[in-house]
Amino acid sequence: xxxxxxxxxxxxxxxxxxxRAWLVTVMLVLxxxxxxxxxxxxxxxxxxxxxxxxxxxxxxGLLASSLYFLFSASAVTAGFLANRIAxxxxxxxxxxxxxxxxxxxxxxxxxxxxxxxxxxxxxxxGPSAGLxxxxxxxxxxxxxxxxxxxxxxxxxxxxxxxxxxxxxxxxTTWGWHWAFFAVGIAGIVWLVAWLFIGKEGPYSASPKSxxxxxxxxxxxxxxxxxxxxxxxxxxxxxxxCCVSLAAYWALAIVSAWLPTYLQIARGYSxxxxxxxxxxxxxxxxxxxxxEAFATNILMKRGVGTRVAxxxxxxGSTAVAGVFILLGTFATAGTLQIxxxxxxxGLGLVTFTTGAVMISEFVPVLQRGAVLGIYVxxxxxxxxxAPTIFGGIVQAQGSTEAGYQMALTVSGVVVIVGGLIxxxxxxxxxxxxxxxxxxxxxxxx
Length: 444
Description:
- It is a multi-pass membrane protein.
- With about 450 residues, this protein is mostly helical.
- It has one domain: MFS general substrate transporter like domains (Growth Hormone, Chain: A).
- Helices cover about 75% and strands about 0% of the residues.
- Helix 2 runs antiparallel to helix 8.
- The radius of gyration is 21 Å and the shape is globular.
């Protein structure tokens, strides 16, 4: 009889503090908030930035994409480092880089400095999602992870929601470069708190951890590994990557181009555009929380993770693409705003379920690396989406038709990614297959 790896991980280590687990989770949620505030600030000040720097949509698209030039490489590198180095210090180092980059733009607001700083910011932010998910997984069993990881994603979209009105106010009051100073300060505040709160969880593979020693007989928290090629060529891993890449494409458009589209193509004021972006983020939060609790309820009733997690994420993404297309062709007004909020918010539930489904069948010794690779793959959409969007807009003379065409392409990408995931994702099947391939090892 085949064994379910998710069940084998449920061995309870000793000395787990629920209070500490949730305190660390709160810090990871705040980290996501700072992270996405850092990302969103460029899109929110795009119009005055382009005017002051004398650049067009194509050049701005380059700036928006530059965040992701080193994103994937750093995500993979840090993922492997997470197999050996405490996530507390990896996360600390990342935020130091973030803050330096924001202050650099504030001090020298030129095209060259913005480009260089955004590239370095991407290097620092690349590992964030994978390391955060890995850090949370060290504090919770598999069946408990949906909510804490969903809350991290709530923090991400909360970051956009908070940044939208806040950054817009700072930019219109003191100038766009001061918006970068504001998000840099937020990173410094988080660093100070993390020094006192950050800690490794008991579901760790470290043989030096007394907490994990009690679970040494579990293949997922003991010294067992599987070939990386088999892990990443599994249908679930491929399916999760396709769904999440499509969702990340939409997210990259929200942070880089949606405010500009609303102002230039649809005539909204900067404040109104910021409120609509905030509405997209709040919609995403509602969907994320609803999906997390719905998944938990389904799993408690015996529904398999293929449906409770996989169909939920992939189906939501495909439907989200449909709403993006409907919003693209709707006339300006309340209906279009509602359609865009649903379209750009609904598919983002996959960021919770994707990481959790991968954690179902990946041994903990390799989880940090595999999640790093997963994040590297899906965030590659951040390189292509803003640049392609800007290229389409500029090719059409920066007209409303150009924006409409670019949004149409985005909607189709999201639909296709969701449909691929519906076909491929099945975590339990892959967990049983990977279990047969695992072998003990003496090194991480």
